[in-house]
Amino acid sequence: MGSRLAGKVALITGASKGIGRGLAIGLGAEGARVAVNFKTDPEGAEQTVRQVSEAGGEVDLFQADIGSKQDFEGMVEAVCRRFGRLDVLVNNAARTRFGPFFEVTEEDFEDVVSTILRGPFFGSMAAARGMMESGGGSIINISSIAVRQIIPFHSSYTMAKAGLEALTRQLALELAPQVRVNCVAPAATSNDRNRAYDPDFDPKWAAVTPAGRVGQVEDYVGPCVFLASDEAAFVTGQILTVDGGWTLRGCTPDMSDFDFSEDRRRG
Predict the structure, then answer these.
(1) Residue 139 pairs with which residues in a beta bridge?
(2) Parallel, antiparallel, or unpaired for β 33-38 and 59-63?
(3) What's CA 128's distance to the chain center, in Å?
(4) Would you state the pLDDT for residue 258?
(5) What's the helix, strand, coil split of the chain in %, to 5?
(6) Dihedral of CA 234/237/242/247: which sign?
(7) What is the pLDDT of residues 134-174, one digit of tens each?
(8) Residue 191 and residue 88: Cα distance in Å, rounded?
(9) Which of 8, 11, 113, 260 is the most buried (most CB within 10 A)?
(10) Angle in degrees, CA 35, 20, 62, rounded to 5
(11) Annotated active-site residue in 72, 157, 197, 201
(12) Rounded CA gap, 35 and 23, in Å?
């Protein structure tokens, strides 16, 4: 157990798998009491809880559809009842719905925008009120390298993530000085979803990344711990790109044979 986040309460949205799970474990290992949010994957969320506990953290589960203003507000209230306060909000939950532009449906669009933009907008509003009353806090939004270097088949996702980065800067100004708002923009990351698109996802993206490898979930823990901690007391409104140098080169592997069909069916 570390102590950089001792005494703080952190809520991570979309923490049943992937980057969200890694951040929950990492923040818990640094002393934060962790609220694990999930929407439709209770088994995955329970696994996250077990891993946070094994790392020495205090943790609890909170089910909510963060695309719903009412759900997000209710979850923030529940977290404050359970832990007494909320110091850190990590807006990690996202929907992708990747595919060709002309195949994007209204349902796809609404799902992506509600999760990536609507949720963090109203969730940050609810969280920031409590943070300001208790002396301050940190909001961390999880964006994507896709905002800086356009990637095929990402139209609604890239648009929404770009809006999230703009929201980061806007709220950093409006919520200062009590609440800091920053953003981490991950690279192409090794996970089950991406390997389902293409079994060769990792080596293909490693080949176009100056660091020589694809991103790992653990690569984002350190930056988020820093932004959540008092070490970042003078840091707000920043977009921190964590991409192994990929945006320096900016080329993508051939994605024409990626199978996005399962992604489009996700509930």
Answers:
(1) 89, 181
(2) parallel
(3) 17
(4) 84
(5) 50, 15, 35
(6) negative
(7) 999 999 999 999 999 999 999 999 999 999 999 999 999 99
(8) 25
(9) 11
(10) 30
(11) 157
(12) 11
| Per-position b or e across 87-126, b if 16+ CB within 10 A of its CB | bbbbbbbbbbbbbeeeebeeebeebbbbbbbbbbbbbbeb
157 counts as catalytic: yes
CB atoms inside a 10 Å sphere around CB 39: 20
The per-residue b/e assignment along 135-162, b for 16 or more CB within 10 angstroms, e otherwise, is ebbbbbbbbbbbbbbebebbbbbbbbbb
Q: Distance between CA atoms of 259 and 227, rounded to whole angstroms? A: 35
Record: fold of 9-265: Rossmann fold (3.40.50)
Residue partners of 70: CB distance under 8 A and separation at least 6: none
Spell out the residues 6+ positions from residue 121 whose beta carbon is closer than 8 angstroms to its own: 167
CB 206 within 8 Å of CB 212: yes
Question: Each residue of 122-144: pLDDT tens digit?
Answer: 999 999 999 999 999 999 999 99
**pTM higher than 0.85, yes or no?**
yes
Q: Of 36-50, 122-136, 240-254, where does mean pLDDT reach its minimum?
A: 240-254
Using an 8 Å Cβ cutoff, are 88 and 228 in contact? yes
Hey, what are 261's tokens?
Answer: 């069909």
Q: 244: exposed, middle or buried (C-beta count within 10 Å: 0-12, 13-18, 19+)?
A: buried
Domain range annotation of the chain: 9-265
